[in-house]
Specification:
The chain has 414 residues and is α/β, with parallel strands linked by helices. 34% of the residues lie in helices and 27% in strands. The protein is built from 12 helices and 23 strands. It binds flavin-adenine dinucleotide. The site of flavin-adenine dinucleotide has 36 residues, from helix 1, strand 10 and helix 8.
């Protein structure tokens, strides 16, 4: 039995980057928004921790950048591949035509807490934590709201627009019946922390050896580390034992094995399933999916958060006036949002699938006896360094950088 009901002009399921940014932008434009987040806080790990130059540009356009950059972060101006002892620079963000020519490395919970705190300045911004969307409410063929469980109680939220921003395992996407196209990902990721010493330097990048790939992200006193394995390969690694895994990690990071003693049990190593997929159609009457709910991204290139933010910006730009004025949202408008975001998404997903097949699979299947192992795309980059500009642009800005509409920008952020 539903015990509490809410109404608003836009209900968003999911307090991740897509949902919180959309909620912030709409409420800043005067729309009544309710965001549902199933967890009690934003303090979860295993999410993208990269705030890219285009997202920083959005913060700048909103007048939030200075305050945002006061949060602890590290600046990554380049991205490198470490091949044994050799460093190959793959990207430099220094030439990008934006205010911040770097990726801000920041735990995602700090970013989300920041957006949620900024949203409180607007009366239309409401976040219901510990509230899990469970189903869509329909009237005829139109979605008119959703049901949810909030701290054990059933609730309903009625709204002319429901946005699924509930990530790649989206419940609302399933309930909508929209068709998902699986593009496949041949990898999974093992995610763990390794202590960082000042003498390590601060450069983030990928350590690559035949059969081994490890990404390390600088989080001040530790390296957030992602060890890439073939899909479904964890059981085999576990069978070889934790001591053997510690040795692999130490070798990949060029550390003494004592440094990775922090991996005391398998509980210190989290398995993250990688998926790449997207909806053929992102909307129905009264319903829209954005971010990973519309297109799950691989961690390759670390572009998922960026894409989710850009989806939110386009959605807010197209819909803030219609929602605020209580006009009916046509599927033509929703289709125009999908149209604008589809080709950047398709291109980035193709690049991720291409990177899985070339760089990643080439590295994971290379013979350990091959002393000259260098994946082909890296050889090309070594030979023609000016080509670094292309991945830096795509990773840093995406393939179509979106700007916040002047009508939203011009509202003071108090
Ligand atoms: C291993 C791994 C590493 C990655 N690393 C990076 C990286 O370094 N940089 C990068 O840019 N991207 C990275 N990505 C991709 C990135 O995490 C996603 O693309 C991005 O988080 C998508 O944002 P989102 O808001 O659409 O979804 P999410 O970040 O998944 O947020 C969805 C939110 O909805 C909530 N939720 C889920 N179900 C419900 C429900 N039923 N009701 C209410 N709330 C719900 C969730 O708790 C969550 O807070 C990585 C992905 C993986 C798998």
């Amino acid at each position: 039995m539903t015990i509490k009901s809410y109404t608003c002009q836009c209900c968003i399921a999911g307090g991740g980057p897509a949902g919180l940014m959309l909620g912030y932008l709409l409420s800043r434009a005067g729309v009544d928004v309710i965001i549902l987040e199933k967890h009690a806080d934003f303090l979860r790990d295993f999410r993208g921790d990269t705030i890219h130059p285009s997202t920083l540009e959005v913060m700048h356009e909103l007048g939030l950048l200075e305050q945002f950059l006061q949060l602890p972060h590290q600046r990554a101006e380049t991205f490198n591949v470490f091949l044994g002892g050799q460093k190959v620079q793959m990207m430099s963000f220094s030439h990008l035509p934006v205010k911040c020519k770097f990726v801000a490395m920041m735990p995602q919970w700090d970013f989300l807490n920041f957006l949620a705190a900024q949203g409180k300045a607007y009366s239309g911004f409401q976040v219901l934590m510990s509230t899990e969307a469970t189903d869509l409410i329909r009237e005829g063929d139109r979605v008119t709201g959703l049901t949810a469980i909030s701290e054990g109680a059933s609730i309903s939220v009625k709204a002319p627009l429901v946005v699924a921003a509930d990530g790649r395992s989206s419940v609302l996407r399933d309930k909508s019946g929209l068709k998902v196209r699986e593009l496949g990902a041949p990898i999974d990721v093992l995610w763990f922390r390794v202590p960082r010493l000042p003498s390590d330097g601060d450069e983030m990048g990928v350590s690559m050896r035949p059969g081994e790939l490890l990404v390390r992200l600088n989080r001040a006193d530790y390296w957030q580390s992602a060890y890439i394995i073939p899909k479904g390969g964890l059981d085999e690694i576990k069978q070889q034992g934790l001591a053997s895994f510690r040795q692999r990690v130490a070798r990949a990071m060029n550390f003494d094995v004592e440094r990775v003693a922090c991996l005391a049990t398998w509980d210190d190593v989290k398995l993250l399933n990688v998926a790449v997929n997207r909806l053929d159609t992102w909307y129905k009457k009264g319903f829209l999916a954005i971010g990973d709910a519309a297109h799950a991204m691989s961690p390759a290139g670390g572009v998922g958060v960026n894409l989710a933010i850009q989806d939110a910006v386009v959605t807010a730009n197209h819909l803030h006036a219609v929602l605020r004025e209580n006009q009916r949202i046509s599927t033509t408008t929703l289709a125009s949002i999908q149209k604008r975001r589809l080709w950047p998404t398709r291109l980035l997903q193709s690049m991720q699938v291409g990177a899985h097949k070339t760089i990643i699979e080439e590295a994971l299947t290379a013979s350990p006896d091959d002393p000259d192992f260098v994946p082909t795309p890296i050889k090309i980059m070594q030979r023609f360094p000016f080509l670094q500009r292309l991945p830096a642009r795509v990773v840093g800005l995406g393939v179509r950088m979106e700007h916040v509409a002047p009508a939203i920008r011009s509202v003071s952020h108090t």
